[in-house]
Write a structure and sequence with these properties.
about 500 residues, alpha+beta, globular, ten-stranded mixed beta sheet, Helicase, Ruva Protein, domain 3, eight-stranded mixed beta sheet, FAD/NAD(P)-binding domain, single chain, D-Amino Acid Oxidase, Chain A, domain 2
Length: about 500
């Protein structure tokens, strides 16, 4: 191997939630880990979710009890691991009698309550929408409904937190670095990595994980030259963001005439997030964009419930992601399992490929993946993430409200909106962002409204952020609150910083 080559135990290809989770678990068990991602962390599917840590209530209708139970168990683990990024959310489901009878929904919710232990979330129940705060935004026809709880998550920041934890346990995280070639040579995997600037890096690994999500089959066939033993079904899920449709903290679950469900969630204070669609797609998963028909579908479904009509003209932003679901004989995308398969090709040094999965089960998936590779890597260290905090999540008692109160007392000079955003984004790591600052001016230049140089420097130094897109849409959602030219202004500022300090 060249003298500048890397040598590691495990190469993880793919910087979405599963890749970051596997790198974290493996590094924490003492393996030498390299994680490479061809773009930014969470660039695709993992930042395009419905932002939920949930059991998947609707999967009960397709008898996926094992998946729901596993997801509900993980919901509790993750809420305690990252209480700054994940918090409880109460859902209201207005009852549409012609779609599902009361007994069916009530039975499903009771099962949902009891498939796994609940420590932090209240039980489900019936609600009178004529008196409940959620009823005011709905058409008067809806007089009764159901309530239950799940978790809200900042999905892109969850990926960054997992990658950060991996790095702090010794992993090397290479963003904007593509695995261009992979071959088995003398008992090792030899990889050729290609950086965005065109430079290359040779790497030798004892094992490889293919966590490329929608590209999993393509990676096997074109990069690893290994046949795929499973196939995937690419399903685009799209969401729209509209001005806030209600003035309370609950979310809604709307049932469609096609028996699908769509969520309407409070989002970034000023907005409502509505989604998702499910459309079979082909072609490049990285080019996913919402179609006009999807916007019309989501608006039409919302209009069956909300008093205030929505049209495509109300949409202020949208996003789409492609989910790699295990292919089966189902014709209905909603019925395709969200569970995962870990497939190991052991014809020489092992190659583990991740087929399917969902954000809620990433920690469990990662644990099972490293367990599966352990014999080949002669790894005896036990699993460790079940009771471990993610970076920023070590809040006493997982009590975010108390943490935010203490932060206000410690930093009264921080404007409340900025303080609230910092607390949610960084948790206990907020003091690393603030550094020695004692006044707002100490945070440096206000590059954009609510975005100071100190935070940008932290994101570049600690969280692999390089572009305005990284900062405004994945490390934060400030892009929703800023004028259209904000990204260009920030990219110009970042470019000036690089010119002023070529060593960066």
């Amino acid at each position: 191997m060249p003298s500048d080559a890397l040598d590691c135990d495990l190469l993880v290809v793919g910087g979405g939630i599963n890749g970051a989770g596997i790198a974290r678990d493996a590094a924490g068990r003492g393996l030498r880990v390299v994680l490479c991602e061809q773009h930014d962390l969470a660039s695709h599917t993992s930042s395009a979710s419905t932002k939920l840590i949930h059991g998947g209530l609707r999967y009960l209708e397709f008898y996926q009890f094992g998946l729901v139970r596993k997801s509900l168990q993980e919901r509790e683990v993750l809420i305690e691991a990252a209480p700054h990024l994940i918090h409880a959310l109460r859902f209201v489901m207005p009852h549409a009698p012609h779609l599902r009878p009361v007994w069916m929904i009530r039975l499903g919710l009771l099962l949902y309550d009891h498939l796994a232990r609940r420590r932090r979330l209240p039980a489900s129940g019936l609600v009178d929408l004529r008196s409940h705060e959620a009823g005011a935004a709905l058409l008067p026809d809806f007089t009764r409904g159901f309530v239950y709880s799940d978790g809200w998550v900042d999905d892109a920041r969850l990926v960054v937190a997992a990658a950060k934890d991996a790095a702090e346990h010794g992993a090397t995280v290479l963003t904007r670095t593509r695995c261009a070639a992979l071959s088995r040579v003398a008992g090792y995997w030899h990889a050729q990595l290609l950086r965005a600037d065109g430079s290359g890096l040779a790497l030798r690994a004892r094992a490889v994980v293919n966590a490329t999500g929608p590209w999993v089959v393509q990676f096997l066939r074109e990069i690893a030259n290994v046949p795929a033993r499973h196939d995937i079904r690419l399903v685009r899920g799209s969401h729209i963001i509209v001005p806030r449709q209600f003035d309370h903290a609950n979310a809604y679950v709307f049932q469609g005439e096609d028996r699908r469900i769509v969520f309407a969630l409070p989002y970034e204070d000023a907005f409502t997030l509505i989604g998702t669609t499910e459309v079979d797609v082909a072609g490049d998963p990285g080019a996913a964009q919402i179609a006009p028909a999807e916007i019309d579908y989501l608006c039409a479904l919302a209009n069956r419930y909300f008093r205030t009509p929505l049209t495509a003209a109300h949409v202020v932003a949208s996003y789409s992601g492609v989910r790699p679901l295990l292919r089966d004989d189902e014709t209905n995308p909603s019925a395709v399992t969200r569970d995962y398969v870990l497939d190991i090709d052991a014809d020489g040094p092992p190659l583990l490929s991740v087929f399917g999965g969902k954000i809620t089960t990433f920690r469990r998936l990662a644990e099972e993946a490293v367990d599966a590779l352990a014999p080949s890597l002669r790894l005896s260290a036990p699993a460790w993430t079940r009771h471990a905090h993610l970076p920023g999540g070590d809040l006493p008692g997982a009590d975010f409200a108390r943490f935010e109160h203490d932060l206000a007392h410690r930093c009264p000079w921080l404007p409340p909106p900025l303080r609230a955003r910092y607390a949610r984004a960084y948790g206990s790591r907020v003091l690393r962002v603030l550094g020695s600052a004692k006044h707002l001016e100490d945070l440096g230049e206000p590059v954009l409204p609510q975005l100071y140089a100190a935070e940008i420097d932290y994101l570049r130094r600690e969280e692999w952020a390089q572009t305005a897109q990284d900062i405004l849409w994945r490390r934060s959602k400030l892009g929703l609150h800023l004028p259209p030219d904000a990204a260009a202004l920030l990219d110009d500022w970042l470019q000036r910083k690089r010119i002023d300090d070529p060593s960066e």
